[in-house]
Amino acid sequence: MATENPTVLQGSSQDMKQRNKPVIKGIQTPKKEVIRLDSIRMLDPSRSKLDTHETQRIISVLDEMIVKLELSSLIPCIIDSLDSFADMLGPEITNDLIEHQKLSSEREHLLSSFQEEDSSRAEEQRDCLCLLEQHLKSSVRNILRLLLANPSLCQALKYEVCGRWSSAEAFIKAFREFRNFMHERLLTSPLEEKEKIQFMEDISLRIKKNTETLTALKAELAATIQSRDEKDNVIKDLKNSLQDVANNYKISVLQIRQEGENQQKEELRASQARCARLQEDIQQLRAQLCTLVLEHRESELALRKKKCKVEMEIEKWIQKYDADMGEKQAEYEELYALYSEEKAQVSLLQEKHAVLIQEYSQIEEERRICQKKKERDLEELTTMTLAATRIQAFWRGYLVRLLFKSKRKKKKKGGGKNPNK
User: Which residue ranges does UniProt annotate as crossing the membrane (predicted)?
Assistant: First the structure.
């Protein structure tokens, strides 16, 4: 860890000093409040707001996903009471919900009639099921798009709809917790995350060592108290015996006291030597700590420079992306303007085409009527010509027959006058 907490080490060294004092005075408790405050300060994120576009976009995407999940979980309840929400939703959303209900019913019917015995039929049903699921997804996206386009309607639906399914509520709650977790993680930099992990490992190791030391000191304290009690009992017995035979055993009592004092001095010297060794260890550990702090500060500075360089590159890429998207948007707007103009021209030409088609139809109808009239007139002319020809032929025949009759009559009259000829 680059920055170790010196207060914790000071507290630990004071603990060791208190434990190494004479046993009669007892053991003082460590300053837990200082450790707790340092731990809370280390575990809390150093930032309160997101300072990069990527993190803000991630959180905005998660928030938008929560809104969509809440709205999509209300769709089954709205469909169940569609008649009561029809006026509020409007005809377009109502029609989409009815279509979504039909697709859901078809999917449930297909699932209920799904048979695994016939492999060819099962494959067809799987294809139909995949197609229905695609339509359902498209329907849900369309409904969400229409609902999100009207924020007041979304708020009204959240208050009006009775409730959602428990599974959906649990999923939304879990997703909110995931969003809060992601927000906390995004507020924490990778370096701070590593520092927290290393800090927790150091704390765990320090607690384990302190627990082992405390157990050993407690055992030593119990042995010392037991030896002290045994010595007190011996002293009491000696005092009782001294009361009976004070004159005979004064020298032995003085020797025993001297031995006890010498043993106490030896134990005191041993304890002082142990404290000195521990103090030397603490000084060595502090020196190591300073060395590690300097090393980690250099690595931290290098990492910060690398981080700044990466952030500058990311900012450049974002600016490039924004510029490219601006150019694409301008190109799209130009193409859309051309498309709109051509579409208007096509509409105008279609209108003119419709007018021309109507005029052409009228002209064709007039031509057809004229053609029929011409054909009828031609037929009448042909009929009249044929009739005239026949009348003329009949008239010519009549005239010829009449001429022949007159000639025959003249011949008969001539024969009657001159019979000898």
Answer: none
Length of the chain: 421
Q: Looking at residue 114, what is its pLDDT?
A: 62
What is the full DSSP assignment across 360-388? HHHHHHHHHHHHHHHHHHHHHHHHHHHHH
Kindly tell me the burial class for residue 275, based on how many C-beta atoms sit within 10 Å of its own C-beta (0-12, 13-18, 19 or more). Answer: middle
pLDDT of residue 195: 77
CA 116, 121, 126, 128 dihedral sign is negative
Which residues of the chain fall short of a pLDDT of 70?
A: 1-51, 114-122, 159-165, 189, 241-242, 245-250, 253, 413-421
In single-letter form, the type of residue at position 29 comes to T
- Tokens describing residue 189: 């930099």
H helix runs in 91-189, sequence order: 91-112, 119-148, 151-160, 166-187
Q: Would you tell me how many other CB atoms lie within 10 Å of the CB of residue 293? A: 16
- By three-state DSSP, how is residue 421 classified? coil
User: Buried (b) or exposed (e) across 61-95, using 16+ Cβ within 10 A?
Assistant: ebeeeeebbbbbbbbebbeeeeeebeeebeeebbe
In whole angstroms, give the CA distance from residue 149 to residue 46.
37
Name the pTM for this structure: 0.35
Tokens matching residue 331: 């190109």
